[in-house]
Amino acid sequence: MKNVLVISASPRKGGNSDTLCNQFISGAQEAGHEIEKINLRDKDMNYCRACYYCKNHDGKCVIKDDIPEIIDKIIAADVVVLSTPVYFYCMNAQLKTVIDRSVMKWTKIANKDFYLIATAAEEEDHAMEGTIKSFRGFLECLTDVREAGLILGKGVYNAGEIAGNLAVALAYETGKNI
Ligand SMILES: Cc1cc2nc3c(=O)[nH]c(=O)nc-3n(C[C@H](O)[C@H](O)[C@H](O)COP(=O)(O)O)c2cc1C
Description:
With about 180 residues, this protein is an alpha/beta fold.
């Protein structure tokens, strides 16, 4: 049994990437894992100020919002799923804000599997490149973490268009096989 954390960054509840998160969760539940989903749209989040207070204060952040708790949950998880809509060829600002704030304890994010879920309106592979690159850039900074899978929904614009997309079954199967 693994401790799985799913972070959904879309502002659209029931949108395309959020639907893939829910499919992943269904599969992981089916396999008996323990899952927590965090919807960033419900969270109070602020940008990293690069004050480096955390560096000399055991990872404590000066900003009192919901992100320190999210970072602690990432540290505690065996499996982390980062999910985002593609915005201007990159992950969205909501997810990037969490990643930037992980500077408070980034050396403690170790020994776990990461998955990326992303959805984009365009069909072309290059629509995903910037998002995959920034996901990999984050992982590259961490200790003993693995890129365990990419679940990409292309050619989906309006919320709900993901229905019937191959990525839906892939998300379920991937969640089931973590
Ligand atoms: C601000 C913004 C920027 C976007 N930029 C892109 C883009 O660069 N490439 C693309 O293919 N789709 C782009 N889209 C479309 C979304 O990626 C697409 O609708 C996606 O399925 C949304 O996922 P969601 O339903 O999970 O929010 C953009 C949408 C928004 C709102």
